[in-house]
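--- STAGE predict ---
source: upstream dedup step, 1 unique chain passed
mode: sequence only
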Amino acid sequence: MNRLEIDLKKLEHNFVTLKSLLNKNTKIIGVVKADAYGGGQFEIVEKLISLGIDTLAVGYTAEGLNLRKLNIKVPIIVFYPQLLNLTEIVKNKLEPSLYSKKTWASFKKIIEEEKIKNYPVHIKYNTGLNRLGFSYDDTIWVRQEIKNSPFIIKSIYSHLGESEAPKPNKACKNQITTFEKIKMSHKEDRDREIDFHILNTSGVFNYPNFQYDAVRIGIGFHGYANNFDWDKKLKPIAKLKSIITQIHNVKKGDLVGYNSGWKAPKDTRIGVLPIGHADGISRGYSSSNAWVNVNGMKAYIVGNICMDMLMIEIGDIFCNEGDVVEIFGELNSANDFSKKNKTISYELITGVGPRIKRVFLS
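--- STAGE serialize ---
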């Protein structure tokens, strides 16, 4: 009935395209948090490993545990570890990002109690996004702690807040300047190679001179880079499909959906699709000029989207009950569709609900 098709050949195209933009020795950290951006974590991870991904990264510990349970052996960074599950990180050989004095002290205590030496960790600095991370003022403290820690520092990184914005961009320039200072400070007293990274997908396109040792790619593997010209180089890998469950003939003035959400301006036909806001098609798409692809034709969503269903005006479009409808995909990318709800492709694709079957094409 409803299905999210994931084209792994297009994923490969995106991987190869993005890798071609990098210097020969630049590593790729494959970001597969949030079920690999809603696309199915295990299958996408398997494909990335087959393509030679260097390292994987997830948001939270549970996501890393899922991959370990599936026998994924490559290094896995946990971007946002919480104090309550630091022990699980150690048990499953995950690599935490330490982003505050509290996370550092708590994790150090666990490692010392376990009498482990040289445990791999990553250090996150906040250079202006003001989300997570040590501040620039913490640099001396961090450097001193490294000298007396049971850790191996695998990487030091930060995250740009406006990497897709046109240049020159003052915010990004300030962040990069701060990160350069942090990098130089750590270079003064390190006794082993540490990777530095600050770029995400958009940054790879927009700031190629600041690749450092690695880049982090997530949404790019799915075919999006937050810029029309960059997006043209990539291929969206996902298509969300549904079917027409029922067709109604409605007369001019008839009402459609909860709270009389739409009033037919003329005699027309309405198609009902078995997909709704419980499946990730937000109520915000209701009568928002959003459309779906019915046999190559635009059919606009009408009325308020229900939990399990939505309605489209099919008018004179040649179609029948049971015909496949593409919510987003070939003619209407997730990026384009999401704009109708004043949001972004990230929110749309990660919000595709668990009732939607994932189908992988290879």
